[in-house]
Amino acid sequence: MADFLNTPFLWVVGTVLVYAVAYFVYGRWIDRNVWRSDAKRATPAHMYMDGVEYFPTSRYVLWGYQFKSVAALGPILGPFIGVTFGWLPALLWIIGGNFFIGWLQDYGSMMLSVRKEGHSFGPITYEFTGAGGRTNLLAFVLFYLIILSAAFIALIATFWNSFKGTTFVPTIGILFAGLLCGQLLYRFKMNVFVVTGIGLALIVLSLYLGTILPVVLPWGAWNIAVWAGVCVLILYIAAILPTPTFIQPTNYLAFYPAVAAVILIIVGALATPFTGVDIKLPAGPFLTDPQGLLGPIWPILFVAIACGAISGWHSLVSSSSSSKQLDVETDALPVGGGAMLSEGLLALASLIAYMVLTPAFVFGIPGDPANPSHTNVASWPVGAALLVSKLLGVDAANIVLTTFFGLVLIVYALTVQALVTRFFRLVAAETWGEGRFRLFGNKHVATAVGLGVPWAFAVSGSWWALWLYFGGANQLLAGLAIMLISIHLARVRAPTKYSLIPGIFMVVTTLAALLWQTWTFVYSVSLFLQGDKSWVVRNVRGPIQTDPNYLLVAVGINAVFVLVGALLFLVGVSMAIRLFRSYRSSVAEARAPVAADGGTPKE
Amino acid sequence: MAGAKEPSKPKSRGRKMREAAKGVIYGMAAHGHVTSALRTRMYLEHLFMFITLGDMLGVPVIPPYYSLRILPYAVPNIKSWKQRVFRERDFTDQVF
Fold first, then answer.
1. Phi first, then psi: what are they for A49, rounded to 5°?
2. Which residues pair with A540 in a beta bridge?
3. A56 in contact with B at a CB cutoff of 8 Å?
4. B23 lies in which domain range?
5. Is residue B43 packed enough to be buried (19+ CB in 10 Å), middle (13-18) or exposed (0-12)?
6. How many C-beta neighbours within 10 Å does residue A382 have?
7. Structural domain count of chain B
């Protein structure tokens, strides 16, 4: 047995206990004293029941749906950047962020939507901040989706390029199985259990084929650009085809390996005292990242780990579909809060998969030509395989095991990205559907723009820079969602400090992170103008990074990233100002004395 | 009394847990797809109603003779059609 205290076991148990306190003590207290949820109050699911969008659903079903909708690549990849500052601060943020902010946002967004007759954030923003605020939100979401797509496409391409090329064939296998199962299910009306069996058999077969038929591209530094192109092509087809033909059945089949992987890792982490797998990465904290790529721990760590601690995407999910199907108000805590705390455990499991790897493998050894400094973004499958290998009685380097976890990583990214691309198309249709730029509202043009621009970012910029922009935008959305919650609470004269303080923290932190990241690019360009090109090439991807002929291209990419960061920052600041103003006026209105005749003083 | 429902027996703890597990798995695996399929059917029904009963909105798509022939079949859906069509929808409603 390994040194018990040096295994991840105690950290898993400790985090579960803290999350239990968050749910059973803090959560119930907030539910009872701040939102005052009432099981007898009619929810939108009952008031507007139509059997399609609004209908009451069991809390267990909704919990499963909410968890599946919010758990994606974020809680797996975020901790990877987090461990750069040491695993301890990353763990503390996953615990503390979720305890004080994360679940509160998911649950609050759901309750806010329920109390606003099932309205989603668009109409609620309109009500609180006017037409300008909603347009601002629309612009912000468009930017957010582009950056999110760029980060995910870059990562999918990197993953296909890793693991000795074994993951591409299984990915195509899952997509093909999804297409086939969709046809069997909807066209030939086959039994769902039989179809599921066929689909899973095809996945297992494709996994085996992947290990014997690896796909390794021969173009060296251009490989990522080609892989990203393949990814864009798949996403284009997914976004254009009707959802029952492609996205739905593929996501359904992908669910099984994805959930199996999470369960395996959590069991593997709990069994570490017996399997002898111990923590190898340094605990930290490092106040700035030792590699000098990211910057200071505040604000970078707080945007790097998004899902698992807090994520703005969740507020959109909570307020768009789950809130319309909530049977009783008291279900919001287990569905919204419970799903978020469960996602925290997924982030914890991912963090543990990194913690058990050696620093030399994850970050390299500075000055060692055989293993120079690097960021091995594809570390997760190796750590996951290490955690579960002894449980399954196989070697940690078993190619089937690493291919399986690599496939899960890709599937998490690809399935969510397909939905994001489709959402971008719908938002583009909303934005440019009429008027002079209506061409951009066209289904094919909008999808091409929603994938073409992210592709350009993905193949030119570093993945960590994209991830930090994505994290900044995502966390800022979370901060804005918490501000909307605070405005509502102020209007109904409920206590606001439990949401306002986290809201202010998130808005300030994320704006600071966006500013820092933008400044990094500005600084790189200014150094170039003074003759130092090292920072400019640091921020871009090969072959632009290594080929001196592309130096001006690298400068151009840095300049574009300055523009992107500045725009994100300005749109975010504008939105934050509108929300703070609305909050202030809401508090003033709530404090104003009520007129004797029952009307408000304004009347 | 014939036809009267017998009072349902309280569920055992084991049955409750089985139902909860079933619900969670269904919610994770299929609930999103089921609601998405329902929404697709809703949009197709909207289109059908618009084509057949467009005159109700002042947009005669097909000659009124055919609309009147279809009317008896369409009447049961008119109320829910109106309810869904008149509902305000925003881009943030379309995340999933």
1. -55, 125
2. A461
3. no
4. 16-88
5. exposed
6. 24
7. 1
Yes or no, beta carbons of B42 and A121 under 8 Å apart:
no
- SS3 assignment for A419-470: HHHHHHHHHHHHHHCCCCCHHHHCHHHHHHHHHHHHHHHHHHECHHHHHHHH
Query: What does the pLDDT look like over A239-288, one tens digit per residue?
Result: 888 888 888 888 888 889 988 998 898 888 888 888 888 888 998 888 98
Interchain pair A65, B28: CB under 8 A: yes
Tokens of A439: 């061409």
Classified as helix, coil or strand, B53 is coil
Unique residue bearing structure tokens 């632009």: A544
pLDDT tens per residue, range A58-96: 999 999 999 988 887 888 888 988 899 999 999 999 999
- Give chain A positions within 8 Å (CB) of B28: 64-65, 67-68, 255, 259
Q: What digits encode the pLDDT tens for the residues B39-90?
A: 888 888 888 888 888 887 788 888 888 888 888 888 888 888 888 888 888 8
Cα separation of A253 and A499, whole Å?
A: 38
Structural domain contains residue B3: no
Instruction: Supply the ipTM of this predicted assembly.
Output: 0.84
Do you know the residue count of chain B?
Answer: 96
Cβ-proximal residues to A259 (8 Å cutoff; 6+ apart), any chain: B28
Burial label for A444, CB within 10 Å (0-12, 13-18, 19+), is exposed
List domains and CATH numbers for chain A.
4-166+214-363+373-586 (1.20.1740.10)
> What one-character-per-residue DSSP string does A516-528 give?
HHHHHHHHHHHHH
- Answer yes or no: do B93 and A122 touch at CB < 8 A: yes
Give the span between the Cα atoms of B69 and B66, in whole angstroms: 5
Q: Which structure tokens are listed for A573? A: 């600041």
Q: Is the dihedral of CA A529, A530, A531, A536 positive or negative?
A: negative
Q: Rounded to whole angstroms, how far apart are CA atoms A89 and B15?
A: 42
For residue B93, being part of any structural domain is answered with no
In chain B, residues with a C-beta closer than 8 Å to the C-beta of A50 are: 80, 83-84
Chain A to chain B Cβ contacts (< 8 Å): 120
Q: Does A433 touch chain B (CB under 8 A)?
A: no
b/e per residue, A70-96, with b = 16+ CB within 10 A? bbbbbbbbbbbbbbbbbbbbbbbbbbe
CA atoms of A593 and A580, how far apart (whole Å): 22
Percentage of chain A beyond pLDDT 70 is 98
Whether B95 sits inside 8 A of A321 (CB atoms) is: yes
From the list B29, B35, B91, the residue facing A426 with the nearest CB is B91
Residues in chain A within 8 Å Cβ distance of B35: 52-53, 321, 325
Half-sphere exposure of A547 (CA within 13 A, CB side): 12
Position B40 in a domain:
yes
Please name which of A152, A151, A144 lies closest in space to residue A575, comparing C-alpha atoms.
A144
Using the Cβ of A317 and the Cβ atoms of chain B, whether some distance falls under 8 Å is answered with yes
Is B39 contained in some domain? yes
User: Hey, are the CB atoms on B96 and A320 less than 8 Å from each other?
Assistant: yes
Which of the residues A186, A256, A321 would you substitute to probe the B interface, choosing the one with the greatest number of B C-beta atoms within 10 Å?
A321
- Consecutive H or E run containing A80: helix A74-82
Burial of A188 (0-12, 13-18, 19+ CB in 10 A): exposed
Report the distance separating Cα A106 and Cα A92, nearest Å.
20
Q: Which helix (H) or strand (E) holds A552?
A: helix A551-591
Are the beta carbons of A63 and B84 separated by less than 8 Å? no
Q: Over the stretch A551-584, which tens digit does the pLDDT of each residue have?
A: 888 899 989 999 999 999 999 999 999 999 999 9
Picking from B19, B20, B96, the nearest residue to A69 by CB comes out as B96
